Predict the 3D structure of the following.
Amino acid sequence: MIRLLLALFLCFSSVVPALAVNPDEVLADPALEARARAISAKLRCMVCQNQSIDDSNAELAKDLRVLVRERLTNGDTDEAVIAYVVSRYGEFVLLKPRFETKTMVLWGMPVILLLCGGVALVLAARRRSAGTPGSPLSDKEKEELDKLLRS
Amino acid sequence: MIIELGHYALVLALATALVQAILPIAGARRGDRALMELASSAALVCALLVAFSFAVLTFAYVTSDFSVRNVWENSHSLKPLIYKISGVWGNHEGSMLLWLLILVFFSALVALFGRNLPETLKATVLAVQAWIAAAFALFILLTSNPFARLISAPGEGKDLNPVLQDVGLAIHPPLLYLGYVGFSVCFSFAIAALIEGRIDAAWARWVRPWTLAAWTFLTAGIAMGSYWAYYELGWGGWWFWDPVENASFMPWLAGTALLHSALVMEKREALKIWTVLLAIMTFSLSLLGTFLVRSGVLTSVHAFATDPTRGIFILAILVVFIGGAFSLFALRASRLKSGGLFAPISREGALVLNNLILTTAAATVLTGTLYPLVLEALTGEKISVGAPFFNMTFGLLMLPLLCAVPFGPLLAWKRGDLTGVAQRLFVAAAVGLLVAAVYYYAMNGGPVLALLGIALGVYLIVGALTDLVLRSGIGKADGSVAWKRLSGLPRSAFGTALAHAGLGVTLIGIVAVTAFETETVVEMKPGMMVNAGGYTLRFDGMRQGRGPNYTDETGHFTVSRGGVAVTEIWSSKRLYTARRMPTTEAGIRTFGLSQLYVSLGDPMTDGGIVVRVWWKPLILCIWGGALIMMAGGVVSLSDRRLRVGAPTRAKRAAGLALGAAE
């Protein structure tokens, strides 16, 4: 029972007010802080569901935010900071996965679909214009049309 | 006793659904009218039984009958009445019962108002509806019985998850389900068309109002959910690309495509096969959404159900219905004759482009949502696909579509004149750029992309109105003549204009908030000030309070502008006593279309408290635009040709004659 409650608590605690960045974390230099925020929004809080470390109030997220700020203060570029975090925590931490073999389908999907759809449409349009523009009316249809036009 | 009656009614509903699922379709094959007519009565009986069953569960909640396990788990005797009622669907079992209730309710509507449908079509549609109803009734009875009793009734319930104790969340699921399940009718019509091997304009005339209604509800549900997340979760976000949000967004995208392709089919008899396919896809995505949320395969903010047996059962439903529908489509689609020729540059062409982009967008969201799951299952590698991915891909896809939206209604059917339309939209584009320039000046600069976004939004609004202006001849014809023409336009023309303008309004809101919002995080002690959006907030202090089932701490802020106090804001943190769970109740003040958003963080050791203040410029446009889109849906739905439903045979002939005369 206790374990169930604990599990419930843990799973709900991620829902609760995710109030992230605390005043004590904020860097003095606004430009550097802005870069830190932008980077944080791209990094996943590993213990949360679908939250960036910027949004999360989990301990781990806080540690990561501090880490990002430390690296930035040490003069790392944005890319270097991200590369460093990935080297420590793996690619799972990236909310926007890199373009690689394993993410080819993911990134390629919109392009492939648009291309396939476009080609299919062009082919369909060609086929349509190549065919006779509508077959002539059958006698029965003509009769029906006459009746309609007269009414 | 009454609980058992509710349970029994559900069993009877399953039996009725099985009768409705089998006999009418047999009747339709054999031309047996008595069997076909059985469908309508069975649908009505089934709806009554499920409604009774649902009423019983509601009764158990209202009277706090904790001998019912479901009530004990999700309710509390001190909870306000409205949350006792909304608690019925604030949990897995109850929400599935609500799903079923809406499904059989829609079947009953088809039974009641479908008198002028061809009888074989009606019987088949109702039978298909009953297949779905039977599957879900079985699912509820076997894996998620809300009527299960506890042997010794506890004295007090465990309370509803506090974040769900909110008016927004009380009405969000019903709206969403009305949308999701509304598409089941389109699905059933599509399956019936495939079974019958026949499809005509009357079919589209029936499917379109259902699509419109479902789409309107789904829009409402999504907007509601988004606004709820905005004010309840306490960090001012309004869309997270959370898998559960995506689950409702995918049917919306496909449904929007369906709305447009059904239009082509109704007016021009073209795109028949595609419309049938879209109807199947839309409901399949709704089912998939239900699966994703209900099976717990993605544990996220919304997923309050985690039980693999349920997951496997829903997966089976998913496979049978989606797989079955697509197989049927593959087998029978070639029987449906396509008609209606059109040039690539035409209104049909524009609607095809709309469909291409919207379905690609839906597929992109689908891939992004499922990719991490599939990749992990196949290779064991874990990746994340989050907001930055979706913003980029989805944004890029939407850009051309948004530019093309105003062109659609201005292009002629069959063969359109692109340059002519572009000239007519010149004013819209110019106004858009002008407004963006003024905004740039007012904001003292800003990112160029954001300004182009604002321009695009304004262009959408003016472009939507352009259609009405041109069709009524305002500015060219005499005032009274123009007015007469304007009021003579079909309601659907206004619906289109409203929906497209609403899209522009939403876009403006999204762009403005994304680019121009400001966030201030400070530690405050009473008497301290903070600036946001041209206003100054003074923190006056904290106050303890107590609600029916929670205690709270409220911070009081005085808002002033230029030294003059204009209003005050209360922002609080609640602790729900039953679950010992905290929530934030953000303090929100509206100024025009913008909002100040104040949320309390943790108290600091030195007596201060962390306060987050956001200025959200034009944020109300996001949901205001959704409201305008919904209004468009409702206005379109009231169009005469949809209100009268599928016309009778004689009327249809007259309609054809009219169409020929046009």
Q: What stands out?
A: Residues 1-18 of chain A have pLDDT under 50 and may be disordered. The radius of gyration of chain A is 29 Å. Residues 70 and 76 of chain A are 9 Å apart (CA to CA). DSSP finds six helices and no strands in chain A.
